[in-house]
Design goal:
The protein is α/β, with parallel strands linked by helices. It has 18 helices and 34 strands. The longest helix has 27 residues.
């Protein structure tokens, strides 16, 4: 996209219609001074676009677009379909979504609509066409965002359920086939006709649950694709169409949702201040707001994976992001650090939520670039300084291809299955984020070991040649992959046979595409390649110490930087490999070598981690949910037995080093210091600092201040 080739798009969501006083010129002048190059407008105010049924007011946005154009600020125009006006709710109360059958959620928030309802779609299409027809040719408009953060809720409306029944009828063909595939003999659930299917409110059948979640995701994908197709009837060839994804939404299947869009775009909300510090023992709960530096990088890597391509950050922290009791505005330097971290993983736009802090409404305390006083302060100045850096770096940092040492398979169906029917938690409390927790524990382990991650969805790889995939993806982690068809599991075996290092985790290969427990020995189709099998597993309430086996995981894993004799080291210095938490697979050795054991009178009979050569590759298995120490120790072992060490590695525990290739082939490196304490970095080659144009020679030491980052291009 030509509009992204100039430099990183940098700006904020801007709602002049929310300002308590007219100040359009003042706002745009401040944006220009901060080097903003983009704003997002229009997506939240259907009642402003159409105050009454059939009465449209389309001209109010014209001064905003004209003013942006005069200052060379591009505009992303949104369709306002996620927040319906009261008159539409009054005329068609049946469009109110139901979270349980027959129980509308009511009005007063947003996204309360069943967006499959014909009445809603009629009015939405009518408005979309009028807005886009009015402004598609405006020279400031570079792209369109359809809807906003779709997939908030699962619809239980009667018409949606009837569509679900039709969906099943077309997929399975007969109730006899559905009875067989879902095992409905159990508890006397056999259907005699399609009208017998019960509504999902009280459902306890896993097969039904998974089919219901898949169907809901298809509804969201269809809705966004429908809007995108309407917009493209008016859009110019140089304009893109996207939507803003909140990745934790229950009916988002991002790889499918973005298939009909030109570019993926998502939100990167994160805890600030000390939650970004390294090193850290932070184990805070993850969710729509991430916690920990590792999770910030994971969020960016998830966005890249949606289309396996660079992405837009449509919303990220300006000040405090959260409810009125949650306030953590960033320390000096952290906005700069986070922006460059996202860019290093492929972001081509950094757009803050939002320009000014609201004076009313549900998000009164979701801080914007400007505070409630509307006067530029510390936040504005910090972000403006970043704008100058981005302008100086220019086009070289756009459309980056991030490096990665390890690739993680991310399965939305496995996430849905383990949310509806959790398997982690024991007798304390079921864990509805069990799948994410399994994947995140290993992502964090490799991150803490100083390695860069990458995500891939199953359908993005299963038709590729495994031998070719190994070349650029030497380590592939398939943990928690409980929902998988035979073809995918067999592909994973061929990947290892072709030379890849396949890392397996708990629940992988346990259930088939319909969420039925497999008859094969676990892990299905992978037991011989892994050299282990199990038919027993256990939840555990309290962590269990894990120690390295002879020749296996080290009790103290130390990785010394090879270019600086006096550099600090990456280390796991606890006198043990770590701890097992929540779950244990009773692994039986069948050709694999044990890497670690549980220190426990019962569980000690089974290895905690194993590895075995398979073909020209290797399969390693981690039979528990690791704590951060065990995950890091295990990850360090996997890396050292696969890809070895890179010249560009962190040289202090407070540092991260990420690398990428620019569109012209230039190698870029991003060296962060996530700490109040300064640190040094000894350069492994000649570089130029893109933010200052300073040149440095190999062996020189860079001084990194508190909460600092350097953007370095190889010379």
């Amino acid at each position: 996209m030509e509009h992204l080739d100039r430099r990183i798009l940098f700006g904020a969501a801007y709602y002049h219609e929310y300002q308590p006083t007219p100040r359009l010129s003042e706002d745009l002048d401040l944006m220009q001074r901060a080097r903003f190059s983009v704003i997002r407008v229009g997506e939240s105010v259907w009642s402003t676009w159409e105050p009454e049924n059939g009465r449209f007011d389309l001209d109010w946005l014209q001064p905003v677009l004209d003013g942006a154009r005069e200052r060379d600020i591009a505009v992303i125009l949104g369709t306002p379909t996620y927040a319906v006006p009261p008159w539409l709710a009054r005329l068609y109360p049946e469009i109110n979504l139901e979270r349980r059958t027959g129980q509308p959620i009511g009005w007063g928030a947003r996204q309360e609509i069943d967006y499959t309802h014909p009445a809603f779609l009629f009015h939405a299409e009518r408005l979309i066409r009028k807005i886009i027809a009015q402004y598609a040719d405006h020279p400031a408009v570079i792209g369109f965002q359809v809807d906003n953060e779709p997939g908030l809720a699962i619809f239980h409306n009667h018409a949606v359920f009837q569509r679900f029944v039709d969906h099943l009828r077309h997929r399975y063909g007969s109730v006899e086939a559905l009875n067989r595939e879902w095992g409905l003999t159990y508890w006397s659930h056999r259907l005699s006709e399609w009208a017998d299917l019960w509504t999902p409110d009280g459902n306890a059948q896993p097969q039904y649950s998974l089919a219901w979640r898949r169907f809901q995701a298809e509804l969201t994908t269809a809705f966004i694709t429908w809007q995108a197709e309407i917009v493209r009837e008016y859009a110019r060839d140089d304009q893109f169409v996207t939507t803003c994804i909140a990745y934790e939404r229950p009916t988002v299947q991002d790889e499918e949702l973005t298939a009909g869009l030109d570019v993926a775009a998502g939100n990167a909300y994160y805890r600030m201040q000390d939650k970004l510090a390294l090193p850290t023992a932070d184990t805070a709960e993850q969710g729509w707001t991430t916690s920990g530096t590792w999770s910030l990088f994971a969020a960016a890597d998830r966005m890249y994976a949606s289309k396996q391509a660079p992405f837009l950050v449509t919303e990220t922290d300006a000040q405090s992001i959260g409810m009125s009791w949650q306030h953590e505005p960033a320390y000096d330097g952290q906005w700069r650090q986070v922006a460059w971290a996202l860019i290093s993983r492929g972001a081509t736009m950094i757009e803050y939520w939002h320009w000014h802090t609201l004076h009313y409404g549900a998000e009164t305390y979701w801080g914007g670039v400007l505070p409630h006083s509307q006067q530029p302060g510390r936040v504005y100045e910090q972000i403006a300084e970043l704008g100058v850096e981005l302008e100086r770096a220019g086009s070289l940092v756009t459309e980056l291809k991030p490096d990665h040492d390890v690739t993680f398979v991310f399965s939305n169906p496995s996430k849905w299955s383990l949310q509806q029917h959790p398997q982690l938690g024991g007798y304390r409390e079921r864990d509805t984020r069990g799948y994410q927790r399994i994947v995140e524990s290993l992502y964090r382990g490799f991150f803490d070991a100083g390695r860069q991650g990458h995500f891939v969805h199953p359908q993005q790889v299963v038709d590729l040649d495994p031998a070719e995939y190994v070349t650029d993806h030497p380590i592939l982690v398939a943990a928690g992959l409980t929902i998988a068809d035979d073809h995918l599991l067999q592909w994973l075996e061929r990947y290892a046979d072709a030379g890849g290092h396949l890392v397996l985790g708990i629940r992988t290969g346990y259930e088939d595409f319909e969420a039925r427990a497999r008859r094969e020995r676990k892990p299905a189709f992978l037991d011989q390649a892994a050299g282990v099998w199990y038919d027993e597993y256990s939840t555990i309430d309290d962590p269990i110490v894990v120690i390295g086996a002879t020749g296996g995981l080290p009790s103290t894993a130390v990785v010394q930087d090879q270019h600086s004799a006096d550099a600090e080291v990456d280390k796991v210095d606890h006198g043990l490999a770590g701890r097992a938490t929540r779950w244990i697979d009773g692994l039986q050795l069948d050709g694999a070598e044990p890497l670690a054991h549980y220190q426990h009178p019962h569980f000690g009979r089974w290895p905690a981690a194993t590895s075995k050569r398979h073909g020209t590759g290797r399969v390693s298995y981690l039979g528990t949910l690791p704590d951060p120490d065990l995950a890091r120790s295990f990850a360090a072992w996997v890396v050292d037995h696969t890809v070895g060490r890179s010249r560009w590695r962190r040289q202090a525990e407070s540092q991260t080093v990420t690398s990428a290739t620019a569109a012209d082939g230039t190698r870029l490196h991003f060296v962060h210091n996530w700490s109040w304490a300064s640190s040094c970095y000894s350069l492994p080659c000649d570089v130029v600092d893109l933010t200052s144009d300073a040149k440095f020679d190999s062996g020189q030491r860079l001084d990194l201040r508190a909460w600092d980052v350097r953007i370095l291009a190889e010379r």
